[in-house]
Protein backbone atom coordinates (compact mmCIF):
# COMPACT_ATOMS: atom_id res chain seq x y z
CA UNK A 1 0.00 0.00 0.00
CA UNK A 2 2.82 2.37 0.76
CA UNK A 3 4.37 1.65 -2.66
CA UNK A 4 1.09 2.40 -4.38
CA UNK A 5 0.74 5.68 -2.53
CA UNK A 6 4.31 6.63 -3.36
CA UNK A 7 3.80 5.69 -7.00
CA UNK A 8 0.66 7.89 -7.17
CA UNK A 9 2.67 10.81 -5.74
CA UNK A 10 5.40 10.34 -8.39
CA UNK A 11 2.77 10.23 -11.17
CA UNK A 12 1.15 13.43 -9.83
CA UNK A 13 4.53 15.18 -9.68
CA UNK A 14 5.41 14.13 -13.27
CA UNK A 15 1.98 15.21 -14.49
CA UNK A 16 2.39 18.62 -12.75
CA UNK A 17 5.84 19.14 -14.27
CA UNK A 18 4.48 18.24 -17.72
CA UNK A 19 1.70 20.78 -17.33
CA UNK A 20 4.17 23.50 -16.31
CA UNK A 21 6.40 22.60 -19.30
CA UNK A 22 3.40 22.71 -21.65
CA UNK A 23 2.27 26.09 -20.22
CA UNK A 24 5.75 27.62 -20.61
CA UNK A 25 6.07 26.26 -24.17
CA UNK A 26 2.73 27.81 -25.14
CA UNK A 27 3.70 31.15 -23.56
CA UNK A 28 7.03 31.24 -25.44
CA UNK A 29 5.23 30.43 -28.70
CA UNK A 30 2.66 33.23 -28.07
CA UNK A 31 5.44 35.73 -27.28
CA UNK A 32 7.33 34.86 -30.49
CA UNK A 33 4.16 35.14 -32.55
CA UNK A 34 3.28 38.49 -30.95
CA UNK A 35 6.75 39.90 -31.58
CA UNK A 36 6.52 38.85 -35.27
CA UNK A 37 3.11 40.46 -35.64
CA UNK A 38 4.18 43.69 -33.92
CA UNK A 39 7.60 43.98 -35.60
CA UNK A 40 6.36 46.42 -38.30
CA UNK A 41 5.02 48.72 -35.56
CA UNK A 42 8.03 48.51 -33.22
CA UNK A 43 9.31 52.00 -34.05
CA UNK A 44 6.07 53.48 -32.71
CA UNK A 45 6.59 51.92 -29.28
CA UNK A 46 10.34 52.33 -28.83
CA UNK A 47 11.61 55.67 -27.51
CA UNK A 48 13.69 57.60 -30.01
CA UNK A 49 17.37 57.52 -29.25
CA UNK A 50 19.10 60.85 -29.61
CA UNK A 51 22.80 61.08 -30.08
CA UNK A 52 24.51 63.11 -27.37
CA UNK A 53 25.71 66.49 -28.58
CA UNK A 54 28.61 68.36 -27.06
CA UNK A 55 27.50 71.87 -26.27
CA UNK A 56 29.87 74.71 -26.95
CA UNK A 57 30.47 77.19 -24.13
CA UNK A 58 27.98 80.04 -24.25
CA UNK A 59 30.77 82.55 -24.87
CA UNK A 60 31.81 80.69 -28.04
CA UNK A 61 28.35 81.02 -29.64
CA UNK A 62 27.96 84.42 -31.23
CA UNK A 63 24.76 85.67 -32.80
CA UNK A 64 26.29 85.13 -36.23
CA UNK A 65 27.06 81.48 -35.47
CA UNK A 66 23.58 80.93 -34.06
CA UNK A 67 22.09 82.47 -37.20
CA UNK A 68 24.23 80.13 -39.36
CA UNK A 69 23.03 77.13 -37.34
CA UNK A 70 19.41 78.20 -37.63
CA UNK A 71 19.71 78.79 -41.39
CA UNK A 72 21.37 75.39 -41.89
CA UNK A 73 18.64 73.70 -39.82
CA UNK A 74 15.86 75.40 -41.78
CA UNK A 75 17.50 74.36 -45.08
CA UNK A 76 17.70 70.75 -43.90
CA UNK A 77 14.10 70.92 -42.70
CA UNK A 78 12.92 72.17 -46.10
CA UNK A 79 14.87 69.43 -47.94
CA UNK A 80 14.03 66.48 -45.68
CA UNK A 81 10.84 67.54 -43.95
CA UNK A 82 12.42 66.54 -40.62
CA UNK A 83 14.12 68.60 -37.98
CA UNK A 84 17.82 67.80 -37.61
CA UNK A 85 19.08 67.00 -34.12
CA UNK A 86 22.33 68.90 -34.69
CA UNK A 87 24.09 71.04 -37.30
CA UNK A 88 27.79 71.70 -37.86
CA UNK A 89 28.79 75.37 -37.69
CA UNK A 90 32.46 76.29 -38.06
CA UNK A 91 33.44 72.76 -37.06
CA UNK A 92 31.28 72.80 -33.93
CA UNK A 93 28.10 70.80 -33.47
CA UNK A 94 25.09 72.87 -32.51
CA UNK A 95 21.85 71.28 -31.29
CA UNK A 96 18.77 72.69 -33.06
CA UNK A 97 15.09 71.91 -33.49
CA UNK A 98 12.91 73.34 -36.28
CA UNK A 99 9.16 73.34 -35.67
CA UNK A 100 6.85 72.86 -38.65
CA UNK A 101 4.70 75.88 -39.40
CA UNK A 102 7.10 78.44 -37.97
CA UNK A 103 8.07 80.99 -40.59
CA UNK A 104 11.48 82.55 -40.46
CA UNK A 105 11.50 86.27 -39.86
CA UNK A 106 13.28 88.56 -42.28
CA UNK A 107 16.79 89.51 -41.23
CA UNK A 108 16.90 92.50 -38.87
CA UNK A 109 14.01 94.70 -39.96
CA UNK A 110 14.37 98.29 -38.82
CA UNK A 111 12.37 99.11 -35.72
CA UNK A 112 9.13 100.97 -36.38
CA UNK A 113 8.92 104.54 -35.23
CA UNK A 114 6.82 104.93 -32.09
CA UNK A 115 3.28 106.08 -32.71
CA UNK A 116 2.61 109.76 -32.21
CA UNK A 117 0.73 110.69 -29.06
CA UNK A 118 -3.00 110.97 -29.73
CA UNK A 119 -4.55 114.41 -29.82
CA UNK A 120 -6.74 115.59 -26.96
CA UNK A 121 -10.02 113.68 -27.01
CA UNK A 122 -8.59 110.85 -29.12
CA UNK A 123 -8.11 107.41 -27.62
CA UNK A 124 -5.59 104.77 -28.49
CA UNK A 125 -6.90 101.25 -29.06
CA UNK A 126 -4.31 98.89 -27.57
CA UNK A 127 -3.64 95.24 -28.32
CA UNK A 128 -4.90 93.23 -25.33
CA UNK A 129 -2.26 90.52 -25.81
CA UNK A 130 0.74 89.67 -27.98
CA UNK A 131 -0.13 87.96 -31.26
CA UNK A 132 -0.63 88.34 -34.99
CA UNK A 133 -3.22 90.65 -36.53
CA UNK A 134 -5.51 88.40 -38.62
CA UNK A 135 -7.86 91.08 -39.94
CA UNK A 136 -8.34 94.82 -39.66
CA UNK A 137 -12.10 95.45 -39.92
CA UNK A 138 -12.02 99.26 -40.27
CA UNK A 139 -10.10 101.90 -42.19
CA UNK A 140 -9.15 105.48 -41.41
CA UNK A 141 -12.23 107.71 -41.58
CA UNK A 142 -14.75 104.96 -40.69
CA UNK A 143 -17.34 105.73 -38.02
CA UNK A 144 -17.60 103.08 -35.33
CA UNK A 145 -20.06 102.48 -32.51
CA UNK A 146 -19.25 101.09 -29.11
CA UNK A 147 -18.84 97.30 -29.41
CA UNK A 148 -17.99 97.26 -33.13
CA UNK A 149 -15.16 94.91 -34.14
CA UNK A 150 -12.07 96.92 -35.05
CA UNK A 151 -9.59 94.10 -35.61
CA UNK A 152 -9.02 90.41 -34.94
CA UNK A 153 -5.81 89.16 -33.30
CA UNK A 154 -4.60 85.55 -33.14
CA UNK A 155 -2.59 84.27 -30.20
CA UNK A 156 -1.91 80.63 -29.37
CA UNK A 157 -4.29 79.43 -32.15
CA UNK A 158 -7.15 81.47 -30.65
CA UNK A 159 -8.71 84.49 -32.33
CA UNK A 160 -9.70 87.47 -30.20
CA UNK A 161 -11.84 90.33 -31.45
CA UNK A 162 -10.74 93.82 -30.51
CA UNK A 163 -13.85 95.97 -30.10
CA UNK A 164 -14.42 99.71 -29.83
CA UNK A 165 -14.98 100.84 -26.24
CA UNK A 166 -16.68 104.10 -27.31
CA UNK A 167 -18.31 105.64 -30.37
CA UNK A 168 -15.97 107.57 -32.64
CA UNK A 169 -14.22 107.95 -35.96
CA UNK A 170 -11.09 105.98 -36.83
CA UNK A 171 -8.35 108.62 -37.14
CA UNK A 172 -5.47 106.30 -37.92
CA UNK A 173 -4.88 102.55 -38.32
CA UNK A 174 -1.37 101.66 -37.09
CA UNK A 175 -1.28 97.97 -38.10
CA UNK A 176 -2.02 95.75 -41.08
CA UNK A 177 -3.10 92.12 -41.39
CA UNK A 178 -0.25 89.67 -40.58
CA UNK A 179 1.57 92.23 -38.38
CA UNK A 180 2.94 90.85 -35.13
CA UNK A 181 2.03 93.01 -32.14
CA UNK A 182 2.95 93.06 -28.47
CA UNK A 183 0.68 93.46 -25.50
CA UNK A 184 -0.48 97.05 -24.95
CA UNK A 185 0.84 98.11 -28.38
CA UNK A 186 -1.34 100.81 -30.02
CA UNK A 187 -3.10 99.40 -33.08
CA UNK A 188 -5.32 102.35 -33.99
CA UNK A 189 -6.51 105.77 -32.84
CA UNK A 190 -10.15 106.73 -32.48
CA UNK A 191 -10.91 110.41 -32.80
CA UNK A 192 -14.03 112.27 -31.78
CA UNK A 193 -14.73 109.68 -29.09
CA UNK A 194 -17.91 110.49 -27.22
CA radius of gyration is 34 Å
What is the succession of H and E elements?
HHHEEEEEEEEEE
Proportion of helical residues: 25-40%
Q: What's the number of helices?
A: 3
CATH class bucket of the largest domain: Mainly Beta
Strand content: 15-25%
Q: How many strand elements?
A: 10
What does this structure look like?
The protein has 194 residues and is of the alpha+beta class. It folds into three domains: 13-49; 58-95, no CATH class; 123-191, RNA polymerase II/Efflux pump adaptor protein, barrel-sandwich hybrid domain (OB fold (Dihydrolipoamide Acetyltransferase, E2P)), CATH 2.40.50. The protein has helices at 2-38, 42-45, 63-80, and strands at 86-89, 92-95, 123-126, 131-136, 143-144, 149-155, 158-163, 168-173, 180-181, 186-191. The strands form three sheets. Strands 3-10-8-5 form a four-stranded antiparallel sheet, with no helix packed on it. Strands 7-6-4-9 form a four-stranded antiparallel sheet, with no helix packed on it. The model is unreliable at 100-113 (pLDDT under 50).
Summarize the structure.
The protein has 194 residues and is of the alpha+beta class. It has helices at 2-38, 42-45, 63-80, and strands spanning 86-89, 92-95, 123-126, 131-136, 143-144, 149-155, 158-163, 168-173, 180-181, 186-191.
Amino acid sequence: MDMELMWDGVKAMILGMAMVYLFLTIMIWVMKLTSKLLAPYAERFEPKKETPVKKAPASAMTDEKIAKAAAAAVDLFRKNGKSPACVQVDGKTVSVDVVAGIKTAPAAAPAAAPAAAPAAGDIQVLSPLPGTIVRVAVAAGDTVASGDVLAVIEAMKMETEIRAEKDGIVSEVLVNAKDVVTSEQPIMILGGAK
